[in-house]
Amino acid sequence: MSRAPFSSVTSAVVSFARNDIDTDQIIPARFLKTVNREGLGDQLFFDWRYLPDGSPNPEFVLNRPEMAGRRILVAGDNFGCGSSREHAPWALTAWGIRAVISSSFADIFTSNALKNALIPVAVPPEQLARIGSILEAEPEAELTVDLEATELHLPDGSAIPFKVDPFARRMILDGTDEMGHLLAHEPQLKTYEASHPPRISTRA
Amino acid sequence: MRLLDGSATVASPMNDTNPDSARPRTTVDKIWDEHLVAPGTDGAPDVLAVDLHLVHEVTSPQAFDGLRARGLKVRNPGQTLATVDHSIPTTDRSLPIADEIAATQVSRLEQNCREFGIPLHGIGSPHQGIVHVIGPELGVTQPGMTIVCGDSHTATHGAFGALAFGIGTTEVEHVLATQTLLQRRPKTFEVRVDGQLHPGVTAKDIILSLLSRIGVGGGTGHVFEYGGTAIRALGMEGRMTICNMSIEGGARAGLIAPDETTFGYVQGRPHAPTDADWDAAVDRWRNLTSDDGAEHDRSISFDAGELTPMVTYGTNPGMGFPITDRIPDPDALTDATQRDSLRAALAYMALNPGEQLLGRPIDVVFIGSCTNSRISDLREAARMLRGRHVADGVRVMVVPGSTEVKRQAEEEGLASVFRDAGAEWRESGCSMCIAMNGDQLSPGQYAVSTSNRNFEGRQGKGGRTFLASPLTAVASAVSGRLSDPRALL
C-alpha cells in the first residue's frame, strides 16, 4: 500500500540521553491490548510522561511546551531494545517523531521503524556526544535527517553520513511498502515450494 | 562476503554437506541456505521461507486487517499456529474475561483464525499455553526449521537448532500472506560454555551471566550459536531457557545445534515425524552442526564451574551479578550517559551503591514465563519447596507455561506442593512477566521473578524486579528475603 514519500526532515530535537531505552518504556505493555495501530501517540513514554496521579511529569522532556511539533528524537545507545512490539514505532510516529538519532538500535526495532518510515540514524558514539554538546549549548538547534543523501546535517554546516538498509530506504523514498516486492516473488516461491514440502502441519 | 551465489544455494538440500564449496558453514548458514527462496538482488534482502509461524492475540490483529485491506489470504494456514497467552487471565477460565479490551482482542483472534483457516489453541483447549511453550510441546518446533512469531522471545525455539526470531506486525502480515520474509543474513556470535555447573546453579544463571558480560546490546546484529560441554549437558528445557533470553543480549536469535538430547525430546510428540519420516528427519538434523572450521564473527567463552546463582539489580537484564555481590557505584563510571543510566536504574530500584542484595526483603515471587515455566522448572521448584512454607506476607504466584504443563504438574503432585506451601497455583499464560492481564506488582513492590525482563514497570507500573532462577525464587519465597538457593540444597 502506498504512503507519502519521505526524503528528509528538518526539526529541533527532543533530547533524552538515556542508554538502552526499551520498547516497554516507549509504550508500556498494558496499552498493547488495542486491535488498532492508530492513536498511540498519547501512550508514548507513558510511565515517564505521567505521574501516578495522571498529571504530566514536569521533569520529563516530552512535557516541555516547546517540544510540541518536534520531529527528531536524540537518545542514548541501544535504542529500542526488548520487546518486538511494532506499537513502539507506531507510538513514536503518532506523536510526530520521524527520525531517532542514537549510537545503535536494536535489530527488531530497526526493522519495525523502517517499515513505518521512521528513520533510525545510527552515528558513532563520539558523534552522538558531539550532537549532545551542540544541543546543550543551543537546545533549539535544528538538525536535518536527509534520507536521500543518508546524511545528518548539523547546525554548524557539517554532515555525518549514516547507514540505512538500502532497500528500506528506497521503499521510504518511493512511499511504498515491501508486500508488493514479496508478492512479485510468486514464481520463485512456487518453485521453492515444489521442492520443499512443508516440514510440519499444524492441523490436528 | 557471507552471501553465497544464488545458484549454489537455492536448490541445495539440508543434508548436502556442501562438497562444491570449500567454505565450512555454521548452523545458521546451513538453515539459511536451505530456506533461501530467492537471493536478494539490486540491494534487496534475501527472500527467506518460513516453516512455522506462531501467532498470538497481541501482535496479530493489525496484520489480519492488513490482509483484508489488500484482499489477500493466508498462504499456508497449515504452517501457522495460534494461541492466546499475553492478555488472558490466569484465574478461573470458565468465567468470561472481565477486561473488555482484552476480551475484544481474544475474540478478534478467534474471528481471524476462523476467517483465515488457522488452527487455534484458544481458551479451553488442552493445548493452550504460552506460544513458546506449546510449540516444542506439540512437536511443531523441530530442528533446522525457520520459525517466526510476533514476539521477541521466539528465540526460545533455537534450543532445537532452529533459526527462530521475533518479528513486528508488518512482518507478521508478510508471513501470513507469503510464508516468506525479507531478511539479511545475520552475523554469528559463538557462545561457548564448558565445564560443569555446581549444584544450585542453573541454565538461567548461565544466560544471566552471559548478559552481564556482554550487556543488553552486546549481540545486536548477530545470532548466538551456543555450544560447549555445559550447554550439551543441559536438557531441552534448560536449553530453551538460555535461547529464550538471547534477545536480552540484543541477538534476535540464539540456537544450539541438535543432538541426541534434542531428538529424544522431539520423538513421539503429536506433530513429530514418525517411522521412516522420523529416520530421514534425524539424518537431516545430524548435519546441522557447524562444520569444523566454520567462522563466527564474534565469540566468547566462559567456564560453567565458575558460576554462582545470578540475580539482576537494575532495570535491564544485563544489569546482573552473582547473588553475593554488591551494587556497583555509578560514580565509578567514566561515561556520562552510562553513569546517568545506572543512576536512574538504581533510583528506580531504590538501591544504593555498595549495598548487598542478599537478605533484602521481597514482596512477591513469580515463577512462570516462557523462560522458566516448563515442567522441569516446576519440578525443580517443587523439590526445593516440598516440606517448606512461603514466608508470611510474601505472595507467590506459580503460573505453568501451558495447560499441558499444568495438567502434568497436577498429575505429578507438584501443584499440591505449591498450594500446601502457600503459593498460588494458576492457569497458564504470560501473566506477570508482561503484566497485561491484571497479574501485576503494585508500585514500589519488589519481586523475585523467573521471567526475562526487569525493565521499569514491566511487571506493573512502579514494580521492581529481580530476575533469577526458579531455585533462587523458591529460596527467596521461603525466607521472604532475596536468598541464595545453595543454602537449601
Describe this structure in words.
The complex is a heterodimer of chains A (204) and B (489). Chain A has 204 residues and is of the alpha/beta class. Helix content of chain A is 31%, strand content 16%. Chain A is built from eight helices and seven strands. Chain A has helices at 23-26, 46-49, 87-95, 107-115, 125-137, 166-174, 179-183, 186-195; strands at residues 8-16, 72-75, 99-102, 119-122, 142-146, 151-153, 159-161. A seven-stranded mixed sheet of chain A has the order 4-3-2-1-5-6-7. In chain A, helix 3 (87-95) links the parallel strand 2 and strand 3. The longest helix of chain A is centred in the middle third of the chain and has 13 residues, at 125-137. The two termini of chain A are 35 Å apart. The mean pLDDT of chain A is 96. Residues 1-19 of chain B have low confidence and may be disordered. Chain B is globular. In chain B, the strands form five sheets. In chain B, strands 5-4-3-6-7 form a five-stranded parallel sheet. In chain B, strands 17-16-15-18-19 form a five-stranded parallel sheet, with helices on one face. Chain B has a four-stranded parallel sheet with strand order 11-10-9-12. In chain B, helix 3 (61-70) packs across helix 6 (169-178) and helix 13 runs parallel beside helix 16. The termini of chain B are far apart. By secondary structure, chain B is an alpha/beta fold. Chain B has helices spanning 6-9, 27-34, 61-70, 100-116, 131-138, 169-178, 203-214, 229-232, 236-244, 260-266, 275-286, 336-349, 375-385, 403-411, 414-420, 470-479; strands at 36-38, 46-49, 52-55, 80-83, 120-121, 146-149, 163-166, 180-183, 187-194, 222-227, 253-256, 298-303, 310-312, 320-322, 364-367, 395-398, 424-425, 446-449, 464-467. Chains A and B meet through helix 4, helix 6, helix 7 and helix 8 of A and helix 3, helix 4, helix 6 and helix 12 of B.
